Amino acid sequence: MEEMNIPVSKQAREKSGKKMPSWSDIKKALAGYDRAALIGLISDLYVSSVQNKSFLHARFSTGPDALKPYLKIIDDTLYPDILSNKPIQIAKAKKAISDYTKAAGEPKGILELMVFFVETGTEFTVTDVQQGPRPRAIDGQGDHRRILRAVRSHRGPSQQHWLGIRRCAPRTVS
Question: 140 with 154: CB under 8 angstroms?
Fold first, then answer.
């Protein structure tokens, strides 16, 4: 396979006069791979980052809980350790939901993450009010509306049953 020289920055690309490879370039290169080479490539991607590992676990529903890494991100970013003075990172929490949606797209998992997002933000806000003001509280009202729209669009006996059970379950990440 022909080796590609990928410039690191936009300035480097402009200096070199070469364009960045596109997805279609990657698809053409992958077309020449056999099954064993593709599995090897996926294996390399799997071990290269925690995000890739979480993505593949969610995509193929492997392991005891494919949601766990995404729940942990939401918990860590919306309910940070006050003593370590970590900021609330709403965008990172929302990105965790988006990443899971891209990886698995499973409605029950997406709803679980959305509800957990609102629960975590609400719990932090309530706890935070008792401890003193923070620069930014989490407004879960818009997210509640998104969750209700999602539940209505995927309404069925299994989702309604899950939502009834979910309302009773406490917010936890193990």
Answer: no
Q: What is the pLDDT of residues 96-138, one digit of tens each?
A: 999 999 999 888 889 999 999 999 988 887 776 555 544 444 5
The two three-digit tokens of residue 145, written as one number = 């509306």
pLDDT tens for residues 71-100? 999 999 998 887 888 888 999 999 999 999
- CB atoms inside a 10 Å sphere around CB 67: 23
Which of these, 130, 68, 117, 53, lies nearest to 90 by C-alpha position?
117
Residues 98-129: b if buried by 16+ CB within 10 A, e if exposed: ebbbebbebbebbbbbbbbbbbbbbbbbeebe
Tokens of 49: 């980052």
Taking the CA of residue 115 as centre, how many other CA atoms within 13 Å lie in the half-sphere pointing to its CB?
A: 22
Q: Which two tokens mark 166?
A: 């979910």
How far apart CA 112 and CA 147 sit, in angstroms, is 9
